[in-house]
Batch of 3 targets.
Target 1
Amino acid sequence: MRIVAAVGLSETGKTLLLTGLISEFKRRGLRTFAVKHCAHGFMLDTEGKDTWKYARAGADGVAMVSSEEWAVLQRARDVGLRALAGKAFDGADIVLIEGGKEARGIRKIEVLRSGVSDVVQTPPDELLAVVSDRGAPPGTAVPVFTLSQTAEICDLILSQGEEAMPEIKLEVDGREVILNPFVRTFIERTVLGMVTSLGGIDPDPRKISLAIDRDGPSPKKP
């Protein structure tokens, strides 16, 4: 799975860019998914409908299913975009995100447009490319494209290594518990934060194992 976010100010052309990339990736036979990051919240359900009533009654999640498609709305406070992509789009080749400039650790394509934004704001270590209608901004060290160069941008994305999604497995009394994206992200961040605060621990550990036995150790035989 390759995950890339298109970032930039409103009216720069992020949606136009992603629709073009989706069409090109699908033409190449790749499973492609899109995520819209809504910084100010969103409302997909219709007020007064049954699913709206279930959510307002306090349901933690509501699903809608038909013979052609399905959708799930789930409450969450802070869903990591990478974790969400790995959980919701299992088997995806490409996940394209519109927005999410604050999300760390995701490769980004920044979209610039004359009269709207002319300065790159993405950190250099996350910037994959720039899409601009004015050519390369001064000091740009990454490839620069126009909105019409969808095939070239797709080639660049495919040249990147695939995402290594954290594998988190929780078992309670021998039964595996399915974790939603929020819980997966919470566990990862909490355990990683505690472990790396200990002395002598690698600040970027690759594998952490934790077991909690509430019965304690078995008593020793005399």
Target 2
Amino acid sequence: MRPFIEEARYAAEFRNHYWTELRGVKGSAAAIKTAEHQTPYPTKIKNQKFNDEAVSDSGNNFGRIARGGLMRHLSKS
């Protein structure tokens, strides 16, 4: 099997699009809190957040790109 490789920014944008638009949930349950830190490398502050987070994610599914079908979507391209 070949490894799955994709640009990180594209994968993150696809994940956010899936979470807010494609999974069929509306309102605050589909909201995303974007990371405060937006430049390529965090500063020397250790606790600086640099990942987007779902506002409501009791199942911890927000970061699982396979749920949105990213790997299946790109294999057809």
Target 3
Amino acid sequence: MTYYFDALPIHPKPEYLESLTSYLMRLAEYNGISSLDGLSAICFPHQDRRITRGIADYPPASFGTLTIVAASTEETLRTTTFFHLAVKFGRSTLPQPTSRFLSGSVSQYLRYCPVCFTEQRKRYYLLSWRFLMLTCCHKHTCRLLETCGHCDALIPLFASPFKVGNCPTCQQNLQQCAAASIGDTAKVEVASHVHDDILFLLTPQLWEADSKSIIRRVGRQFAHLRQMKRCTAVEVANQIGVTLTVIEGMERGDF
């Protein structure tokens, strides 16, 4: 049986699109937990602490006692990770396979919009900022920053001292960093579409449990469209810069 006092004294729910690393740092900051090992002992007591230190928003093999200490559910905590993206593509949701699947697509360091911080009631990091294809904030039409604007250091995703919105190297406020404005309307529109695509991938969908069947149906639809346009698989492969094997695999629905 779980009792209310098993939870941390301050246990807010994750914010919309907040990353797991951001959420864990906020829990630690609000409850006076000062070290990664201390946070690991409370939230993941049965897990090697080296694994906890390496958390990078990939769905963990187990949420440990985090559901208890944060008074949250696994369903809610999964939305702070890449879990639903992996499921949509019929991939393993374990941390290492998900990491390999997203290799080259997500940043290994924090990327952020300082203007977003000014609008947040409580500062937190968005999971969508991790995607390298998202180069700017469509809402504030400025580039996402990839280093601290004060000391130019790369910012770890998960590091102590736990102070969300501050650079762990120089301790300065990231909200005060200047981001270059994007004057090109077309680029802002592209960023908006990219953001919507990422949002869709990260958000749970009712059909996810049947993703493998859907992928196969989409593959058949691709093949049908290609044939309707009287294009060969080789021509399509050349047009989009992939091998014939990739096109054939897509049309077969090889997830």
